[in-house]
Amino acid sequence: MSINTSINQQWKMQVVERFLEILKVPYGDFQAIGNLADAINDVESVEQTVELLSQHPTAKYAFQNRLLLEDYDLDQLYTLNQNTLGYIYSNHMKSNNLKPIQPRAIENDYTYLMYHLTETHDVWHVVTGSDTSMAGETKLQSFVAAQLKTSRFSFAMLAKNLLKTAVEDLELAQLLMDSLAAGWVMGKQAKPLFGIQWNKLWNIPLTQLQSEWNVIL
Amino acid sequence: MSINTSINQQWKMQVVERFLEILKVPYGDFQAIGNLADAINDVESVEQTVELLSQHPTAKYAFQNRLLLEDYDLDQLYTLNQNTLGYIYSNHMKSNNLKPIQPRAIENDYTYLMYHLTETHDVWHVVTGSDTSMAGETKLQSFVAAQLKTSRFSFAMLAKNLLKTAVEDLELAQLLMDSLAAGWVMGKQAKPLFGIQWNKLWNIPLTQLQSEWNVIL
Fold this sequence. Notes:
By secondary structure, the first copy, chain A, is mostly helical.
């Protein structure tokens, strides 16, 4: 066995271990999610994702400048008109008892990719009309997979949800497949959302933004 | 831990073991596929599948009479008009070097369900316009999952294909997701195909059958 084959085998074994770990924990266990992401996201596929995303000027500019959402005040956004991105996002965060995530050090394109996806995760929830149920999270995960194109992690998360549902929640499996199929189609139809500076768009009506980016609910 | 919880844990562990086994072997390994099916298909979910299918008169009649395709001659079907189900099916079998499967004893609804799905698998390939590539098999698997509604095995097979592709064939993952989404939508739109006596329809044009059963390619 060559060194490369051996490394490849070790990598696969680690991915499978992390997959089994996440299969056992409840949905939304951040530790297990992070462990799977770290195990499965190899340098090559991540570079490919960054390259594909960067074909679009919005994402390219965001990578070059490592743009983040910056500080925003959920209470202030809540005072905007009820049809705006800002109000609807704020309402989503408050209803689900969510807080903006803490900033972290951005060392390279990969950490920027992961951090920006995480900090905008709930904006994407709102823009794609996905709630935080297992079906909503799966629709969004599938949308993200379609937008990132080569994210091993996104595909593996979808596989995990599907297997977990088949074994533990069979009555939800059809709804999960509906969500998976809908999110995939929606993510392919939509313009690339990665790198959009949402913090400059809080006061724009959500339906106008969805129409502009061809997000068809 | 109650006896039921303990049995449930043992069942899950066996499913996971069989899932890992099938993850390691090449696509289409019948032994591993059979092992996963036997492990994951519990009595309750299979009974539910039979009950749901039997709401449609075609399937109900097929279950009651355990109807099989009976003998047919691929060479004879090959002489039919080129637009007929029989010719196109025969051509599919010959091109892929496939033979009709051997009959087996039908002991109960479950063995009938599995055997009839197996014996008509390649008819479904033709009717759904799915080739035998990994993408085609996934489209058909997803179509079957939509038609059977509560088949743990079908969902698990889709999860397996998705994870295997994410790890081993990332360049095929988008095509696989396209196929999965398309097969699911097609399977929900189509009338239930289970139990149709295809051997009485060999000389009907394929497009006429697809139209009759609302199979939208």
